[in-house]
Design a protein that fits this description.
2 copies of one chain form a homodimer. The longest helix of chain A is centred in the middle third of the chain and has 21 residues. By secondary structure, the first copy, chain A, is α/β, with parallel strands linked by helices. The interface between A and B is medium-sized, with 25 and 25 residues.
Chain lengths: 303, 303
């Protein structure tokens, strides 16, 4: 299969790099790193084994890329609109586009912009960041779940999962809505609270007031999922997320890293969209709504 | 009437100073400022006319003070328990104790500690701060409303209001519960949000997200008041508070000043107590509950 990678940061660079390293035909769309990668290749430092790809199929513009069988999109959602132009050149009738992106609503938007495209959600559990031009630093974890959104051919998803396995990546097929909302159970409390309270996951759980707040927010997502008819997003899952977070290394979620590095925060798809959907289904999430407002304020002050 | 002033900061120093300046018999309990005041008197810089009281009735201990007809308490509520010892020496059978303090629940606690004492709430609308030892800086406003909590003699309250008028202070009698909860409508959103978002009133209202959040929080207090059967705490009052705040000078509420000056914040009576009462009456205030949790976290981190 031919792979296209759109968004070669910590996540796209890792998965694309691993697939290429395993011998797959991978085509990378670069932005500012193009020249550096053409001259020096792509470097991946990884807890699972580091490697350098001296020669990669690098492109400066999507228009120059070939049609691909699978496109992995790992762009930050703050520029989601760019996909209107970036996807058409690489997408053919049988192409599967996997959106390895945060939040709720990315598939629905991309589907509306490009009605025929076959989409899946990529839910990555990974700590990986761009450490420099053409240089990915993969610290830990790395598994990815694939949730079919509008792919007409299950085989395509199975082939992708197989290629990921061969490349040494844990991957599995999951139910789309359940996976997206389960991810929201963790993402919605921790991304915003680590920003508004300038802290990390461990400190939020060590303080009884914020520990309860995190749990309340997770339960708001559970109630919203229930109203939407999404299954298995329940109290036992909340307890599982609380326990998992307690044993994790003190962690700064992606929004905290974005904020610290003065990059725009993904408030739209991580907060505004799921909040709007939940409201529409009669399940407002008041504490998460408040968190969204605080983040909007912080964003406006940092401009 | 003989007056006692317990807590001679920006508020107690202003009202006590004005009453003494007008010729009333006023007795001040000082803490660290005692020596300075005995040597230099009490200085009040005020937008309504500055003055110095060269000789004041100053005490270092409540036990040395005479019984008073009216005691004005202007202590921060973080040390509310001190009143168990500070009040008995100055309180006789006919004494009125006016708690010029923030939040909900101070009268109920003091009443429980000292069952016979006659209490009223003092709701001050004032910008005044201690600027140095024995030195009060009164910037603007200055009116005070008195809400009878357990005073058996309405005349006592009327005499107090009359003395305040003569001293040049706007004062009026108000319904106790309505006044306390109306004050909470403004205090609960602005005190905490200016701390968590490190900002002032004007910026919160200039941003559409936090403007809505402030309104939502005010409406939570309205709903709680309704559940408690407190009258006239309604939507028109919320609109009045929003408009008033919009025309105010950019303002840092007392909790913001406490936080900036690394003093303990009055989270207990401004948040925890009204939240507990509202929950008890079946009217949870989820966004204010979240604000309380964030403040508890901030408080724990600053220790």
């Amino acid at each position: 299969m031919r792979y296209g990678i759109i968004g070669v940061g910590g996540v796209g660079g890792y998965y694309g790099g691993k697939l290429a390293h395993a011998g797959n035909d991978v085509h990378f769309l670069f932005h500012s790193d193009y020249e550096h990668v053409v001259a020096n290749g792509l470097r991946v430092d990884s807890c699972d084994g580091s490697f350098v790809l001296p020669h990669v199929n690098a492109y400066r513009q999507a228009a120059d890329m070939p049609k691909c069988d699978v496109v992995l999109v790992a762009l930050k959602t703050v520029n989601e609109q760019l996909l209107k132009d970036l996807l058409p050149p690489v997408v053919g009738t049988d192409t599967l586009v996997v959106l390895i992106q945060n939040g709720i609503g990315v598939e629905s938007d991309v589907q509306a912009w490009l009605p025929g495209v076959q989409l899946a959600a990529g839910l990555a559990f990974i700590c990986s960041a761009k450490a420099g031009p053409g240089y990915v630093n993969h610290q830990c974890y790395g598994s990815i779940n694939i949730g079919n959104y509008s792919c007409r051919d299950d085989n395509r998803i199975n082939e992708l999962i197989n290629d990921l396995h061969v490349a040494g990546i844990e991957a599995a097929a999951v139910e789309y809505s359940e996976a997206r909302w389960k991810k929201a159970v963790w993402n919605m409390p921790f991304n915003g609270l680590t920003v508004t309270l300038n802290t990390q996951t461990d400190k939020l759980l060590a303080n009884p007031a914020t520990e309860q707040l995190v749990r309340d927010m997770m339960m708001e997502v559970v109630e919203a999922s229930r109203a939407l008819g999404v299954e298995n997003v329940d109290e036992p899952f909340v307890e599982k997320m609380m326990s998992m977070t307690r044993v994790m290394t003190p962690y700064s979620p992606s929004m905290k890293l974005d904020y610290e590095n003065r990059r725009p925060m993904e408030i739209g798809y991580i907060y505004s969209r799921p909040l709007a959907i939940a409201r529409q289904f009669g399940a407002p999430m008041p504490k998460l709504e408040m968190l969204e407002a605080q983040l909007r304020f912080i964003e406006s002050q940092s401009k």
